Amino acid sequence: MKALRWPRSPAGHRWFLWGLLLGLMLLLLVTLVWLAGRFEASQVQEKLERDAADVVNDIRSGLTRNVQSLQALHARDPSPSSWADHATQFMGEHRELLRVEWRTPAMDTLAAVDSPFRPPAFDMLGRGYAQADVALGCATARRFNGAAYSTNYFLPQKDGLGMEVMEVCLPLAAGGGITGYVVATYSLPEILAGLVGRQLTRSQEVSFAEADGARLALNGVARRGTPVFTARQLLDLPGNTLVVRVDSWRGAPGVFPNLMMALVTLMSLALITVTVLLARDTRLRQRAERGLAEALAFRKAMEDSLLTGLRARDLQGRITYVNPAFCQMVGFTVDELADHAMPAPYWPPDLAEEYQQRQEVRLAGNAPPREGFSSVFMRKDGTRFPVLIIEAALIDAQGTQTGWMSAVVDLTEQRRIEELSRTSQDRLQATARLATVGEMASLLSHELNQPLAAISSYATGSLNLLQADALDGADLAMAMRRIAEQAERAGKVIRSVHDFVRRRAEAREAVAPQTLLDAIMPLVELQARKLGVQVQTELPADLPAVLCDRTMVEQVLLNLARNAMQAMDQPNISQRLLVLRVSQAGANLRASQPSGWLEFAVLDQGDGISEDVALRLFTPFFTTKLEGMGLGLSLCRTVVEQHGGFLGFEANYPRGTVFRFTLPTVK
Prior knowledge:
This protein is of the alpha+beta class and 667 residues long. Helices cover 47% and strands 22% of the residues. Strands 1, 2, 3, 4, 5 and 6 form a six-stranded antiparallel β-sheet that branches. It has a five-stranded antiparallel β-sheet with strand order 12-11-15-14-13. A five-stranded mixed β-sheet has the order 17-19-20-22-21.
């Protein structure tokens, strides 16, 4: 057997004694509690055994009294009708009985009475269902020459449930022979409810059980799932033996069975608590020491692994700490920088005076910017490099500033990346200018179609007049003026589209709404006569002027009017009406000040716009026309939005579409 070896170190010796003391106290406490619990458990079990014996005595006494009462029924009046009256009164006083019968020696029924407290028990299966049990009980009664009980059996009921019952057979004797039998049917659950004292079932569960533990009937409700005390007693009846089981609601004894045990436990717990607190205090102190050492090691490892240079200086400007990244950045060692006064060895000589003044301002109480500031350092080999310095005040545990902490970032690589980015940006802008040239060409080709078409129409009309020898100087002069106007308009379109592509602010002027409509009416009427469209204008006389780029807004009106007339160019449309309306903008439009905006509306009576087309209507290069380019509506919306307005559309009832846009008025 190995001898007990004491720990050699004082700390190990102390922990050993504390552990031994704690173990002994726990062993003592557990032993006392276990002994007290065993004693109380034995007391509870003994009481439960006595209660089980009382239950058996109560049931046996009740059954004996019922046998005597059944004998008295036959002794009063042997006629069946009188017997039935007395039996009915008897059944009203005994809920445990389901049925009482008077039978002949041949087991034929002379009279029978069912319990008034429930439906007849044998209505579902009939009395013949238990005839074998009745015959067996009566045979046992003849052999014993007294009351005998049959074995219990299960009797189903109409409600889908059932109950355990047993039969008692009482032979009737006269003149030395058996003259008949009195058969009574007992309900085992009602026996427990009626013959067992209520004081026993309030705190316990009483039940009939079979030898294997299966319960036949019970009374009382126990706490399921908790340990209970159980006692079993045999109810020995003539012809049948039942097991009476009593389950106590009271579980196993608690941790503190009595007052003395509670006091001993509290004192033991107090001693254990003091011991545990002392051990915990020592453990916490050791843990704090280990945590501090680990924190210092972690901070050291973290600072050494940083790529950002760290530098600490006191209030006099002397360097008190640098990390390896800073040393690698400037090329000086820790010993060369430690406790070094200003000027620092990594300051460029020509900038040292400027840096010294900046530091004096900072030491005077002016905090550096939180986002940091740029500077230039010099390595030990004389090369210079840009840096970003972020400084913050060093505050100790008492809230006093002890110096400055700086984070230094080498910007050499960042500057190189920025230079590459600028080169890439220049290339991208050159590519964007080329794309703009393509966009300008597309827009010019679309927007010049209308004035060129007008010039072609007027030139064709003039040639027709010359060929027909119907030369009219006024008509020819008017045609030439129109050609000149449209040529000038084409030039304005080119200039406006050029400005539009460049995305610069257009030259805006105050223009009357009537002037805008008058400028496009010749082109509108020209196409209207060709398509058989009637043009109607609605323009109040008191509307203010709008502030806009006249040429671009005229182009918007012309595009919307042409689209509206083309929408009505369908064989099924006989009434073709184009309405150009100008009014004060309503409060429902997207304008910050509705009273300072005018609404321009173009209404047609075409077939309307389908839902799938409406989703892509303003998408560039989307068109439903075979010869269209899909830029008109996209250009219109962009022009209107550049003026701060809103362009939208809605259905025109009973048919057609309404396009609306807003422009600001002159304030």
